[in-house]
Specification:
Chain A: Belongs to the HisA/HisF family. The structure holds 2 protein chains of 2 kinds. Chain A is α/β, with parallel strands linked by helices. Chain A is about 35% helix and about 30% strand. Chain A has an 8-stranded parallel barrel with strand order 1-4-5-6-7-10-11-12, surrounded by 8 helices. Classes of the chains: A alpha/beta, B alpha/beta. Chains A and B meet through loops of A and helix 1, strand 8, strand 10 and helix 6 of B.
Chain lengths: ~250, ~200
């Protein structure tokens, strides 16, 4: 049987892992290659590198991080942030990424999803979505790190990207992100029930039972967390042992 | 030396990285002489079956691959594994390399999340040198939407995903095919690649 995946995410700026809360108050927490190696030892099923660098120079350093990691860590690597064109996708894959995660750029230019899927295959196009609740069972899609409401209905967007050839969705709840009060179960359930591609749950993980809950109550096939793992509040191994103990299939 | 066939389909650097890490000498090649000179051959690949087959034909390597796979260890990975079979049905009917009998078709069981993406547990079916050091509770990483249909005798290991999905096929001689990505399957994948390297006389 297919195992549920636990995915640590590393936010990288100028070659360093950083972590902010609610997209603000960023601080350095370490060397990304070392962090990735440590997560690999803990049993991470994939590792996400998210580039929050704004500069051209920073991009080079970021891709070096991916390149160095790919020589030592043999689990799937996803690159997010700064993917605006097909060339950016190609560059990330050449650096050793197995998938790219496109978010704001995909909302502004949905063709990027189709072009990327056509050229490189759906399997490497993960669409990241930041969404926020506006009413019961209704959410809209945001861009620019959760700062700008695009007024697009979440479920409509999910249907759109699936048709365009997205291979996976990483769904981040702006309401849950940084709260540590658990994943956004209603939003995840709504998306999982409305698509047939894998969905990664993101935003809100604060305690070990949150991971079990998201697998138990939604169709999410993976759960992603950043600060929880960075600050060693939990290890990937502890999360997997706990979920396994509750009957969830994990590697 | 292991020849990794570079025909413009997929992330060949990951395979090279894993072999480098294991200390197995390898080269990215796209010409007949290099494939003939190699001790073993790896055919990687991601993307669509017909496009990959056309790219492979464009390199002029199809006949060479068929000849060499009859006399030295040959490993197809992911799409490279699917190309081993007689025919593929991705968008259109397309001839494969025909190294192992069978066809490749879309996974269409209802309620199944496609692609089959993630780690799944290998269930051994037949003896295979690549699985000698792999235990009974080991997972490998998959990402694919099409699967092979072939004889049980050619399946070294399968995984359960809406029924049996051939994971590792082996013709009993030199031809191996991994639907999963050994180069992305952590320690288990490295063990399988190390065993493949160990086949070199």
């Amino acid at each position: 049987m297919l195992a549920k995946r636990i995915i640590p995410c590393l936010d990288v700026r100028n070659g360093k892992v950083v972590k902010g809360v609610n997209f603000e108050g960023v601080r350095d927490v370490g060397d990304p290659v070392e962090c990735a190696e440590e997560y690999n030892k803990q049993g991470a099923d994939e590792i996400v590198f998210y580039d929050i660098t704004a500069s051209f120079e920073g991009r080079g350093v970021f891709l070096d991080v991916v390149r160095d990691t790919a020589k030592k860590v043999f689990v799937p690597l996803t690159v997010g942030g700064g993917i605006k064109t097909v060339d950016d996708i190609r560059e990330a894959l050449r650096a050793g990424a197995d998938k790219v995660s496109v978010n704001s750029q995909a909302v502004q230019n949905p063709q990027l999803i189709k072009d990327g899927a056509d050229i490189f295959g759906s399997q490497c196009i993960c669409v990241g979505i930041d969404a926020k609740k506006i009413a019961d069972n209704k959410w809209t899609v945001y861009i620019n790190g959760g700062r700008k409401d695009m007024g697009i209905d979440l479920i409509d967007w999910v249907h759109t990207i699936e048709k365009l050839g997205a291979g996976e969705i990483c769904l981040n709840s702006i309401d849950a992100d940084g709260t540590k009060e658990g994943f956004d179960i209603p939003m995840l359930k709504a998306v999982c029930d409305n698509c047939s591609i894998p969905v990664i749950a993101s935003g809100g993980a604060g305690k070990i039972n949150d991971f079990y809950e998201v697998f138990e109550k939604t169709g999410a096939t993976a759960a992603l967390a950043a600060s929880l793992f960075h600050f060693k509040e939990l290890t990937v191994g502890e999360v997997k042992d706990y979920c396994r103990g509750k009957g969830v299939i994990v590697r | 030396m292991i020849a990794i066939i570079d025909y413009g389909a997929g992330n060949i650097f990951s395979v090279k990285n894993a072999l480098d890490y294991l200390g197995l000498e390898s080269r990215l090649v796209s010409d007949k002489e290099s494939v003939k000179a190699a001790d073993a051959v790896i055919l990687p690949g991601v993307g669509a079956f017909p496009a990959a087959m056309r790219k492979l034909e464009a390199t002029g390597l199809v006949d060479t691959i068929k000849e060499e796979a009859a006399r030295k260890p040959f490993l197809g990975i992911c799409l490279g594994m699917q190309l081993i079979f007689d025919k593929g049905y991705e968008f259109e009917e397309c001839d494969g390399l025909g190294l192992i009998g069978g066809s490749v078709r879309k996974m269409e069981e209802p309620e199944l999340i496609i692609p089959h993406m993630g780690w799944n547990k290998l269930e051994k079916l037949n003896d295979c040198p690549l699985l000698e050091n792999v235990g009974d509770n080991e997972y490998v990483y998959f990402v694919h939407s099409y699967k092979a249909h072939c004889e049980d005798r050619d399946i070294a290991a399968y995984v359960e995903y809406g029924g049996r999905v051939p994971a590792l096929v082996y013709d009993g001689k030199y031809v191996y095919g991994a639907q999963f990505h050994p180069e992305k399957s952590g320690e288990t994948g490295l063990k399988i690649l190390r065993s493949f390297g160990g086949l070199i006389k």
